Amino acid sequence: GWNMMIRATFAYTDTTRPNLVVGFFQNPIFSERLDVFVASQSKLNKNNLSGTLTQGSNVVNLVFQPVPNSNDKVFVDNNITLSSSGTIEIRVRGTAKYGFIYSDTAYTFNVQFLQSVSGGYIASTDGKMEVEFPRNSLKGDAYIIAFTGNSDVTNTEIENINSRFSQIYTVSPVGYELTSPAILKIYLDPVKISSIPIDELTIAYWDGTKWVGLNSIVSSNGEFITTEISRLGHFIVTRKSEVTMVELPRVEIPQKFELYQNYPNPFNPATSISFDLAEDVFVTLKIYNILGQEIRTLVSDFKPAGRYTIVWDGKDNKGNVVGSGIYLYKITAGKFTKTMKMVLAK
């Protein structure tokens, strides 16, 4: 008889396409430092994982390393440095650990470098969330990020909220404490809020363990909801009954209406204009040329009492860059009006 030994080799191949989720962590002290994360519910193949971060004309290749104890489900590139304001796009592609079918995903977010002395403004890329930082509300000059979604891919508990009347928005650095409150505004979807009384809506903040409701004001036309925030982080519009309401006193409400000299002045290409509102009121803030012709409307909506800073980028209402010269800016808030001069010097 014959003795025969047969050796068989089997190769396992995963044909699933992983669902890739991108997030980030921004250093609250050195705000230019950024860690970019990519996560999936399934294990990922490190050798097939790649990505790019595009900031203006600068494209950086992302080099991901596995996060310890993540079972090859979370990877990070912790060597990113922010260098300018603008929109950042992150593109990532990869496969399952034993797969060959690639998944691709792309995320965008806005970055704004703000000087503490002048404050400023940032909005999410979908245009539905805005934050206005008054003068000296930041501890120092800092990069601020506005992201549509949950930036913390390692914490899925943030997603566990039933009544959603907006996206989750991240204003980063998460946990950064302000020296005076900023104003956060989220525009409302009339379809989503049609089934709920307006006074049941609140902006909620993720405090690290749960969602808490903040004192919020819905505009008279129901177009948006605003609140004061003393710390940056994750925010959403939800129902008051869904969260623990926190009754925070409104701080530093100005005693009178005021419009301040822009900073810097002269300026090029942008300048900040600050004003105080002593009560909730409809406000317009407009730019005129020296002939009194309107150039730009910066503000035209209802605002709660507080301190505000608006940035003028030196463009008119059509998006055209205006020329050097003397310009006037005028605020109208109820019965209060004031006009001041500024100089654009190129």
UniProtKB/TrEMBL annotation:
Listed InterPro entries: FlgD/Vpr_Ig-like, Secre_tail
Domain FlgD/Vpr Ig-like: 271-333
Gene3D superfamilies the record matches: 2.60.40.4070
Highest taxon in the source lineage: Bacteria
Coiled coil residues, start to end: none
Protein name per the record: Por secretion system C-terminal sorting domain-containing protein
One Pfam assignment: FlgD_ig
